[in-house]
Amino acid sequence: xxxxxxxxxxxxxxxxxxxxxxxxxxxxxxxxxxxxxxxxxxxxxxxxxxxxxxxxxxxxxxxxxxxxxxxxxxxxxxxxxxxxxxxxxxxxxxxxxxxxxxxxxxxxxxxxxxxxxxxxxxxxxxxxxxxxxxxxxxxxxxxxxxxxxxxxxxxxxxxxxxxxxxxxxxxxxxxxxxxxxxxxxxxxxxxxxxxxxxxxxxxxxxxxxxxxxxxxxxxxxxxxxxxxxxxxxxxxxxxxxxxxxxxxxxxxxxxxxxxxxx
Length: 262
Known about the structure:
Order of helices and strands: HHEHEHEEHEHHHEHHHHE
Number of strands: 7
Shape: globular
Largest sheet: 7 strands, mixed
Number of domains: 1
């Protein structure tokens, strides 16, 4: 994704993309970092998860390529080191951090292997790197594909395969320790692509769709109009529940991968 697109999505981003309490607590627990540990949030956006981790006594750096996103992040918290930069060229010395996280951002990296190499470089031995992502197979199975097939196909195609992430990480000294599938909960507060699995009418709202990169990048006007019309009709008839259940993925909707720096 280009910086221009990051900046466009960053406008009003927080209206729909709050840190989800369940996911934020899981992230904190999986990082398993001691109080005061130096942690970098790569692709931090407006800093919602960064803020959560800082509130729990960790020493945070938030890295993002979008100045608009970081402007909003800086307004929330001044004791976080907000830095403009990309995963492929993290502007810190070797072994600078005791933990790192990347939440729904790997698919935006222009060079996954280079980004993973940088993550391995900046982490101290024994540190954890926690990734939250969706595998192509998970995204490709979303019931949204019934209404927006090209958008979902393009979204899935830009996601790095799980094995590619694991292999690239291993080449950078990051060994997989845990793999934890996540299925969207009805009370999810961070409204990313599949967030309203249980409340489909949200997708009819342009303000809801505005914070989701798949709609911003991959949904053409004609597909969007046709898909919204069909979705609206199926919500009214109740047919959408059948469609949702037919598209359920056996391995959940998203995925946490926990790596340890050797």
